[in-house]
Task: structure prediction
Amino acid sequence: MPLVDMKDLLDHARGNGYAVAAFGLGSLELLEAIMSTSERSRSPVILSLTESHFERYDFELAMAATERAARRADVPVAIHLDHGASFSSAVRAISLGCNGVMVDASRENFPTNVALTHRVVEMAHACGVTVEGELGYVAGEGGDARPGDVVYTPVEEARVYAERTQVDCLAVSVGALQGALRGRPRLDYERLKRIHEAVDIPLVIHGASGLSDEQIRRLVAYGVAKINHYTALSDVAARAIRANAKAGGGGYLDLHLGVREAVSAEVERCQRVCGATGRAAEVLARCRPWRPAKRVLLYNVEGGQDAEVEAIMARGREALSKIPGVRRVVTGWAVTQTPRYRYCWLVEFAHEKAAANYRDHPDQLAFASCLPRPIAPERISIDFAQVG
Result:
């Protein structure tokens, strides 16, 4: 179960002079290529899902495949929501299995960015989840990128932002561009150096496409511990598809021949340049495993009818599943004729911390005091962390 704490992963990278590549997922082919390459190169990896892409695939279905791929891997993996659109986006991403989230308020004014990001931090940290903030504007998200569109990250604002929001890592704008490039990126290394000195957390670069190997190495030298990659993967996949079409490729599957291999080569290059190749064993030894938790509640009801109990269960499923960090609420009753306890609940949490947060959450306390306890005094419950 090599899903690891994302903060631990980034802290290790920062402390040991390398960066973890965060690869955007656009399809199952990209996911398979990223994971198989990471395992061959023994590299830690971050699987990144960007909200602006959700109109092209079902986020919930994609998360199921992503989490499964991460859990069966033997290299360290984190799963990250990139460029989330709202607070509710972060809550949903955590409930679906992300252990890192970013809500992008970089286009807002400074006070609004700080306020929204801090709210996300308070919620996510209560669930054990790592939070990335962004200050400054990296041009090209969702379109073509021009160097003149960059809004650079102010050094002093970066220091204040990190202090007030308590983010775990900070995406900065120092000249890198996202999307299809129009012009060559020119990086402001002096600005990055000063931000690195002012902010004592890992730094993040969005828009690695178009950067040279030497540029990436210099970014890492100034505290960058996470580098996002998507456009380059998309481009090599598209070239493979176009080549198949030009050669008279037949159906859908034939057009996609060679896509995994092309993406794999680019993933291997990115991880090597970032300095992550061969780091898997030491990362696994230093990073905490990401451990979900569950609560089992067994109880009997005095004087209640099944219809009444089912109505309570329905209300509980609706109310409790909205608490941040709750992944699923399952209710039911025993199938045997003479059980010790007849009714049961299973609540699944994103992380051990989410289970602790749930116990003290106002919505849970309100539901527990107003509904089940008066009619179900006989009960037993246990919270347990998932292992193995």
In short: The chain has a mean pLDDT of 91.
